[in-house]
Amino acid sequence: MQRSVYDAEHETHRDGVRRFVAAEVVPHRERWERAGRVDRELFLAAGKAGVLGVAAPEEHGGGGNPDFRFNAVLNEELAAADVLGVGLGLSLQADIALPYLLDHCTPEQAARWLPDVVGGETILALAMTEPGAGSDVAAITTRAVRDGDDYVVTGTKTFITNALNADLVITAVKTDPAAGRKGISLLVVDANRAGFRRGTKLSKVGQHAADTAELFFDAVRVPATQLLGEEGRGFYLMMNHLSQERLAVAVQATAQARRAYELSLEHAKSREAFGSPIGAFQHNRFALAELKTETEIAQSYVDRLLLAHSRGELDPVEAAQAKWWISELCKRVVDRAVQLHGGAGYLSENPVARAWIDSRIQTIYAGTTEVMKEIIGRSLGV
Ligand SMILES: Cc1cc2nc3c(=O)[nH]c(=O)nc-3n(C[C@H](O)[C@H](O)[C@H](O)COP(=O)(O)OP(=O)(O)OC[C@H]3O[C@@H](n4cnc5c(N)ncnc54)[C@H](O)[C@@H]3O)c2cc1C
Question: Which residues form a coiled coil (predicted)?
């Protein structure tokens, strides 16, 4: 499929990204999966390769270009190299957490945090979810009480990506429990603060290199200068940023589905049964035809949203549409890819088997399929 979403500048960036992925990610994948976390050096290498902070201002070491298509290129190249679903934490840093700092830091905060985030010396986490509040973000109970020049933070977060490696945790807290959504604020918490503790890594079915864990805040004193944006605006900031996060998942799901289709096509041409390549059987040829059609339709929609986002016109409802539909599509595509590979598709070493397990989360995080449909449904005026 001919795509027109990228310019020459994006393709030049892609060459560098491809070299970065081949040199700094692929050789380490198995070791990181066994260890259950990536080395911090991955972030340093990503910073050096210029993939963490394309959107950050040049004065802070970034690329000075807020065009999200550069981020999309990284996700596509990770999928093409069969390492997208490993759980590297790069997307969390570059696509999801960094934009909060870019949009809401004061000049002093930006100067303090951005250079090291862009360079990969500082690893970010974003902590919204709690044991009692996932989809219903407004129900969080982690409390921040103002005491002099500090907030005192107490509570528990769970399912936090980059939890073990993080140096800075953008944390959703209740500053006014009586004010509902208007009582939520964002605090940037240094992980070396007294009272901050990380749980053990959660044992997940996939994304084995992702250090997803609980975080505990036991009367952690956080200087009030670490408030991100205005007090009481945290819920609305999160809702705004979720659109880009959802587009990122849609980009990843499309790239993952396309890769599974390509691998299945190759396999269908080379694997023989009953004297013919398995792709010669009409059932399989039709299956491949469907995978090609569906992934290209998804690609067209995502490309349209990427272009809209690059113009500052990403519609939250369309981002929700892309997120649920393409993540559900990816689930079906990788499942059919496993079937087309036969027994080989069930081996952990096979990229389609890994994609099958690792991509399952896509319909759940960044807002579940059901929550996406709620958002879309509410926009219909019915
Ligand atoms: C690997 C992984 C990484 C994650 N990373 C992070 C992270 O870095 N930071 C972070 O803050 N969180 C993170 N999360 C948490 C993730 O965002 C939540 O798991 C997700 O939002 C769903 O919340 P929940 O698990 O509490 O499910 P619940 O909210 O309990 O939902 C359970 C079921 O009920 C359905 N449901 C809920 N509300 C409705 C409704 N109104 N209508 C219909 N159905 C509904 C859901 O769709 C789902 O099917 C991560 C999770 C995982 C597994």
Answer: none
Atom of ligand 1 nearest to the CA of 135: 29
CA of 116 to the centre of ligand 1 (A): 30
Backbone angles phi, psi at 92, to 5 degrees: -60, -40
CATH topology classification for 236-378 = Butyryl-CoA Dehydrogenase, subunit A; domain 3 (1.20.140)
Which pair of tokens denotes residue 288?
A: 């491949």
Residue minimizing CA distance to atom 11 of ligand 1: 128
Which residue blocks in the chain are alpha helix, DSSP H?
Answer: 8-24, 29-35, 41-48, 69-80, 90-91, 98-104, 107-119, 234-270, 282-310, 316-340, 351-358, 369-378
75-103: per-residue pLDDT in tens? Answer: 999 999 999 999 999 999 999 999 999 99
Which of 137, 159, 169 has the most ligand 1 atoms within 8 A of CB, as the residue to mutate? 159
What's the pLDDT score for residue 141?
98
Question: Strand, coil or helix: what is 227?
Answer: strand
20: its two tokens: 């970065």
Nearest residue (CA) to ligand 1, atom 52: 159
Locate the ligand 1 atom nearest the alpha carbon of residue 127 and give its number. 11
pLDDT (mean) for 93-115: 98
